[in-house]
Each structure stands twice: as C-alpha cells, then as structure tokens.
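Worked problem 6 (solution included).
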Amino acid sequence: MIVLEYKVKGKSAQYKAVDQAIRTTQFIRNKAIRYWMDASRELKIDKFALNKYSTILRNQFPFVADLNSTAVQSAAERGWSAISRFYDNCKKQISGKKGYPRFQKDCRSVEYKQSGWKLHPTKRQITFTDKNGAPPTPRARQGVFIFKNAIAIFKKNHQIFRSNSL
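Solution. The predicted structure is:
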C-alpha cells in the first residue's frame, strides 16, 4: 500500500467543499450510531444493515446524496467499527468501561476509497468527482475540485489527503 500525504493549496470554495464533505461524513457516522442505539434487539443491526441505512440517508438528505457513495459507506463503516469495538470489549469482559460508542464531535477526515477522486499523472493535482460543493451555475463543471501545486510533506498536522491506492 502506498500512502501519499499532501499539503494542498486551494481556493476558499475548494476548502469549503472539503469541510462540507467532512461534516457530511461526521453526520453519517453519528446517524448510524443513533440508528443502532434506537433499534430493537430483534433487528440485530450489523455492518450490512448500516450500509443499507446509508442508502436511506442518501435518499432522505440531499447533502448526503452529493457525497460519493463509497465515502458514505466508509462513514457508516466507521460507525460500525465503534460498535464492534464495544461488542468485542464486552465479550472479552474487560474490567471498567467498555467503550460505548459515542457521537463524534471533532471529525477531521473523509475517506474516498476507489472512486470519487482522480490523481493527476504528475501527482500534483487531485480532482474530486462528487457533487459536493458544486457551483450553482449550470455552465460550470459540476463537482470537480482541482488542488494545484500540492507538495508532498511529512509534517505533523499538515496532512490533508491520503491516497491509499495508486
């Protein structure tokens, strides 16, 4: 697995679009945890049920539909990982607190897996192809964000995007 870390230089509209994608990811994760909390024990909510619920969220909320489908599913999987960690701690009978899933207040990332982005061959531009933060004019290119002059760095707190597959 190759991981590239970038410090991006973008425009304010591009930063707002990235912030909107991060807020949407946090919203989906918190809704998945709330769905698990409110469900009866007979429903047996698991990873697949949360993925199905993420498609329901895409139909209910237009800002969730603007985010790429794999990013929405990975946000639901993050919710499931918190739930399964709690179940594992209960099965192991760890003394003390078991790590009951909590709502996330400070989300800092959105995960695009295989689709929703395209890396330029020079590896100095990244294009996001979802509709998140798309300009309202019909003539503009909808949902494409290009970050130019991205510089690969390895400093703490300056990483913004990670690309896990090339």
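Discussion: The longest helix spans residues 12-38.
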